[in-house]
Amino acid sequence: MRQPIGRCFVYLILLIFTVFSLFPFYWMTVISTRTAGEISAIPPAIFYGDKLSMNLDKIFNNENVEFIRTVGNTAVITLIITLSMLLFSSLAGFAFAKLEFRGKSLMLLCVVGSLMIPMQLGIIPQYIIMSKLHWINDLKAVVVPGMVSAFGVFFMRQYIDSAIPGEMLEAGRIDGCSNWRLYWRIVVPTIAPAFATLGILTFMGAWNDYLWPSIVLKSSDSLTVQLALLRLDTSSYFQDKSIVMTGSVLSTLPLFLIFLAFNRQFIAGVTDGAVKG
User: Fold this and answer.
1) CA 34/CA 29 separation, integer angstroms
2) Per-block average pLDDT, block size 10, for the chain (277 residues)?
3) CATH 1.10.3720.10 holds for 62-231
4) Residue 229, number of CB atoms within 10 A of its CB
5) pTM score, whole prediction
6) How far apart are CA 128 and CA 125, in angstroms?
7) H-helix or E-strand containing 175?
8) Which ranges does the record mark as transmembrane (predicted)?
9) What are the tens digits of pLDDT across the range 163-185?
10) CA distance 59 to 70
11) Diameter over CA atoms, the chain
């Protein structure tokens, strides 16, 4: 009797935490279907309304923001950063994990050490560089600094080191494979779960990034979707939270779809090595 009772208690605790975790997202979608007056009412509305189409019309016909354009800018930035992050991080991780070269240990130490430096310390020198390159208000100012990271390199290095045995690479070298061919034919197919994990984390980080884009992107043509959310409310007397939340729902949908598409690979990449075979 103790085991079923204990299992029910665990499921009850998990259910409670799930409800608390999902309720903010549910509340965000409820607000997106209501007007500002209905949101401010007491008690507040907790069920869906019928004002979603009106709020969407306010967003897509907004005088301050071309919302579709900002979504396009964010998509371009995010896709380029994600693809380059996967390519460069996996190449560097492969080199650190399976190749021998002079200064390897020192370079890896510098990569790991850079993880302890707060990102905020690099904002001023990074802004000066972007200004010297005349990239302010240009999407390149957001894309180029995010194309590779120390975390991505270290993550790929650890995964490749544990997932690919050295004997497999030695067999490939005996067959005449170069390092590039070993990478494309052996490493890339093997680390697909790591690609999914790092890809989702990078996609989410680039899509939700606010601090750096808010510094280098000021013109309306170069705004990202996170910056556009601040300009959706055109009222001078009160904040129309319904429009902001409708925009937030639209900006969250791509993240939700990406996670649904790659959640199995993501979980496999995160849990790989947690259980010994």
Assistant:
1) 9
2) 73 90 89 83 81 88 86 95 96 93 92 89 92 93 94 94 90 88 92 90 93 90 89 66 87 85 69 47
3) yes
4) 23
5) 0.85
6) 5
7) none
8) 9-27, 75-97, 106-129, 141-160, 182-204, 242-262
9) 899 888 998 888 888 899 999 99
10) 12
11) 75
Distances (CA, A) of 157 to 26, 97, 110, 151: 38, 5, 14, 10
pLDDT digits (tens, 9 = 90+) for 60-114: 888 888 889 999 999 999 999 999 999 999 999 999 999 988 999 999 999 999 9
Amino acid at 51: K
Residues whose CB is less than 8 angstroms from the CB of residue 247 and which lie 6 or more positions away in sequence, other chains included: 59, 67, 225, 228, 229, 232
The whole-angstrom separation of Cα 141 and Cα 128 is 11
Distance between CA atoms of 185 and 33, rounded to whole angstroms? 50
DSSP line for 190-207: HTHHHHHHHHHHHHHHHH
**Polymer length in residues for the chain:** 277
The answer for 273, left when phi > 0, alpha when psi is -120 to 50, beta otherwise, is left
| Beta-carbon count within 10 A of 62 CB | 17
